[in-house]
Amino acid sequence: MIRSIFRRSFVGALALFVALSAVAEEVMEEIIVTAQKREQSVMDVPMAITAVTAEELENMGATSIREIQSTIPGFAVGKLGGNETFQLRGIGPPGNNLPTVGRYVDEMSINTEFVAYGADFPLIDVSRVEVLKGPQGTLYGQGSIGGTVIYKTMSPTLDGEIDGTFEISGRNVTDGNSGYRVALAGDVISTENFGLRLMLFQEEGPGWVDSLQQGSDYNERSKTVFRAKALWNITDNLSAEFMYQRYENEQDGLEYSAIDGGPSAFVLSEKVEDEYDMFNLVLSWDIGGVSITSSTGLIERDYISPLDVPGLKPVVELFFPGITDLAPLFGNPQTVATPITAIPYNLYNGYETFSQELRANGSIGERFYWTLGAYYSDSDFFAPLTTEWFPDPNTFPLQALTGNLGAATKAKAIFGEGTYAFSDKWELTAGIRSYEDDRETDYVTALFGNPSAIQRKIDNDSTAARVVLKYNFNDNVTAYLSGAEGFRSGGTQFVATALLGIPEVFDPEELTTYELGAKGTIMDGRFIFETALYRTDYEDIIVYAPNPFGVQAFLNGGEVEVDGFEFGGQFFATEDLFFKVTYGNTDSAYQQDTLTHRKGEPMDGAPETTYSLAVDYRFNWSDSIGGHFRVDYFHSDGTETHIRGFGYADEETQTEDLKTLNVRIGADFNDWSVYLFGENLSDKDAAIAVPFATLTEYVYQQPRTVGITVRTSF
User: Fold this and answer.
1) By CB atoms within 10 Å of each CB, which of 65, 106, 314, 574 scores lowest?
2) The domain that contains 438 carries what CATH number?
């Protein structure tokens, strides 16, 4: 019934939009994107894209991708410490395997080998963020099964002017402490052929989570980011652009707390420390109407991930009676003087990824555009891991889990895409990518003193295709019908699982999405819209493999169908007042019973409905002082997670609805501006992560935060 309503609403709305579009005029500046590996207006690209510009980022006061998720239908961001996880259109299976949403900075991929370790990328001195929804396997490869996020950093202007921006803000969190942010960015060299742009960002983030071990506000953080970007026009048709970014983040603890926000009982034996260096060299060469682009990238990252896994204590008590504080619950006599009350766990992650892409773009006549390319990457991952007993490390001679995780991956692909315009109305795009990777794992671990080693080499290969038929109703409204494939490579288990009856290797996933979409401008250019209906068939999903030991192991677990609807619109009531609304509905369901899910249950962690509303108004406080008011409201449904077969863990957990109200009001004085802001003004405290498997505490949304921002341009 709901699906039928969405389909009829889509068709009816499209007919109305076409009727109202005949005399549309430009109201807002055209947004140029590179979603199809060439520059196009976002309204001309036949796929669902949300592009957030630098102006929009400034209007929202946003410095992270999580702060703009409300503007992107069907997009969810998880953040813990310095790590980010993305989910698009409900595609985000559990476990720490390969990502389902690709990440790019300019022309380089920054995808990791493990979804939970997506690098934080602050949105400072960024020209735009492009979010491509649906599988992007043809142009962006594996790891983009749900979509792709592209960060476009500011480039030097080469106009001979030395200019930039400076911003400082202070903030205070309810029931927490205070912090500040400082950002400085601008061109320091600008000539006709060479420019250098620098960015420096420093944040002392407030804490608001208390710890029984570490005291009040123990999740406060200290973050420093530096970026240098140089552009050199070597000749009229050859240019080189080099970007380097250094990132450092440190915090005493994570955002976990007890139920209702009480002090965390987690015991951490290390601080959260995160640092990376990122390099990208892009060479662009125009030869006789063909544009050749070479992108060479390197990212090196080290990350200390401390956790506490008290959910393992029942397993410890089961096999070694009397050594934990759970002994009375099991009816066991205490056998040690100092029972184990916590199990601190540390993972020392390090990875290095080199990537190289070479591609060519061109056209034949005025109707055919083509892209051909090749891609190569070489990634190494190494992670020693340790656990301890608390409060007395010597309570028991065997540790719960120790070892080293090592992995090396070499991947290569060739791809191509072509677009042919049959007429001014009809256009056909077709693309294909052939991909293969070689994965070697060397995992050496000891579970309660029992050593195990997994040394495997597996090969994955796949071909992904995309076909799009586009129809231009007129110069202002476009519709498209597409089919696209995505894939995610399989892998090996982290520990030996043969004795548990679980294969040590799991297979790749496959996904196909069929989409009907439309976008355009109507009402004299005052209303801009984008909408899409889609159906996704998701096969061989990688899910948790049930086992009584709490070991993170995986199986391919069945099929899911996802039906979705998205809408985004902006209405310019006047030149100074506009409204923005987004809506996303994701209806996912397993198609049969599996070891972890029952038929009809939704994908784990996927909100069914998200929506947002923004009002942006510019006015004058006086003849010489401008004013700006902005309000954003965001709602995301709570999500379900199913983890059957682990014995000691709840089989189903559910997060609460996330509701956020943000307000900004300020004054502009020529080159200066001053803003007051409030985030989560209604002070909602939804549990956005709940106890799961061996993690027994909660993560709540950040409480009400208020502050002031001062900004100047020079």
Assistant:
1) 574
2) 2.40.170.20
